[in-house]
């Protein structure tokens, strides 16, 4: 990941074994098509272009008659960590015979930080890139300047471009051409990115445009406060980006205890400290999106807080992996 979030989106492919992106493509959400269309050229590259990248991707999926999985990872993933995610996701959701997923697309964003989770380090101000705009001596500042916010706004424009591209491609497609379904996993702190994405979609007055764009969104182990659906209308509206949105949480997720320290939040009305959505589920069922399905994962092999095993159960827990496969195939009850 980069050290600082960029207003530009780069789209490219990893080459097997060496992790090098080829045919990269940039677009600037501030200058490209006002209707959020896909440019035919690459403003900063000698070859490639947004259209070429999407043409290659969807041609492959049509041929395979398979679907796309879009993945957004959580806190502290460098390039090595990103490739590890891709390797595991491919192994579990692409490689198995009969899998509904044909390709994985990952949003790379600057989530990597140097934060050591204790008050002394926070007081000293030794924070990573993701947190430096959120904290000064442990006190929150304007989160709209954070890397998650910048990434979320760019991701919103990319989402609109994807919708524009698919609408045009399949309006002109020959009868019988397979239209790939889109699935999105937002893991842990990636749900903050989604929150800012939803806010940008609202600001652009494009909620109806992206409604139902995804077949499924899986809010996985979300490192965000558990009353977010009550207090953040934009995050609640994000559920409508998909036909079905799944909230997957686990009481046995020790990593999210760290999130309580990073993002402490006390309800101003009740004075009650709120916990993480990915650990307790929603604070109340009242007013939840009508297309939201709750999944509580009970884990028995509990490891340390420093281990991601109980936080990345969609990659390591065989029962959860089977559930996700059934969601992608449309057979989940």
- Largest sheet: spatial strand order: 4-3-7-8-9-10
Globally, the shape reads globular
What order do the helices and strands follow?
EEHEHEHEEHEHHEHHEHHEHH
Q: With helices defined by DSSP (H or I, 4 residues minimum), what is the helix count?
A: 12
Structural class: alpha/beta
Strand content: 15-25%
Distance between the termini: 37 Å
Helix content: 25-40%
Largest sheet: 6 strands, parallel
**What's the average pLDDT?**
78
The total of beta strands comes to 10
Q: How many whole angstroms does the radius of gyration measure?
A: 19 Å
Low-confidence runs: 20-24, 30-34, 40-47, 113-141
List keywords for this structure.
single chain; 333 residues; alpha/beta; two-stranded antiparallel ribbon; 12 helices; 10 strands; globular
Describe this structure in words.
The protein is α/β, with parallel strands linked by helices and 333 residues long. Helix content is 35%, strand content 17%. The strands form three sheets. A six-stranded parallel β-sheet has the order 4-3-7-8-9-10, sandwiched between helices. The chain has a two-stranded antiparallel sheet with strand order 1-2. α4 (147-171) crosses α5. The protein is globular. The model is unreliable at 20-24, 30-34, 40-47 and 113-141 (pLDDT under 50).
Short description:
This protein has 12 helices and 10 strands. With 333 residues, the chain is an alpha/beta fold. The strands form 3 sheets. Strands 4-3-7-8-9-10 form a 6-stranded parallel beta sheet, with helices on both faces. Strands 1-2 form a two-stranded antiparallel sheet. A two-stranded antiparallel ribbon has the order 5-6.
């Amino acid at each position: 990941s980069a050290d600082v979030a960029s207003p530009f989106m780069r789209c490219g492919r990893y080459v097997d074994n060496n992790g090098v992106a080829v045919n990269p493509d940039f677009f600037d959400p501030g200058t490209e098509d006002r209707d959020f269309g896909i440019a035919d050229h690459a403003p900063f590259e000698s070859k490639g272009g947004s259209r070429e990248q999407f043409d290659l991707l969807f041609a492959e999926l049509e041929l395979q008659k398979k679907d796309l999985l879009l993945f957004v990872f959580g806190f502290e993933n460098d390039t090595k960590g990103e490739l590890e995610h891709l390797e595991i996701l491919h192994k579990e959701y692409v490689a198995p015979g009969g899998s509904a997923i044909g390709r994985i697309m990952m949003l790379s964003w600057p989530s990597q930080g140097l934060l050591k989770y204790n008050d002394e380090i926070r007081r000293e101000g030794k924070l990573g890139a993701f947190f430096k705009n959120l904290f000064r001596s442990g006190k929150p500042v304007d989160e709209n300047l954070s890397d998650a916010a910048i990434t979320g706004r760019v991701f919103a424009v990319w989402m609109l471009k994807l919708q524009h591209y698919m609408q045009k491609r399949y309006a002109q497609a020959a009868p019988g051409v397979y239209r790939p379904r889109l699935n999105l996993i937002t893991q842990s702190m990636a749900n903050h990115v989604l929150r800012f994405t939803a806010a940008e979609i609202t600001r652009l007055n494009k909620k109806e445009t992206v409604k139902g764009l995804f077949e499924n969104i899986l809010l996985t182990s979300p490192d965000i406060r558990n009353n977010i659906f009550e207090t953040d209308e934009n995050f609640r509206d994000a559920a409508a980006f998909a036909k079905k949105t799944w909230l997957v949480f686990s009481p046995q997720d020790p990593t999210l205890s760290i999130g309580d320290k990073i993002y402490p939040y006390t309800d101003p009305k009740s004075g009650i400290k709120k916990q993480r959505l990915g650990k307790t589920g929603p604070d109340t069922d009242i007013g939840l999106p009508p297309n939201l399905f709750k999944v509580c994962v009970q884990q028995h092999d509990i490891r340390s807080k420093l281990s991601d095993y109980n936080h990345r159960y969609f990659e390591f827990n065989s029962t959860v992996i089977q559930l996700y496969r059934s969601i992608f195939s449309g057979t989940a009850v």
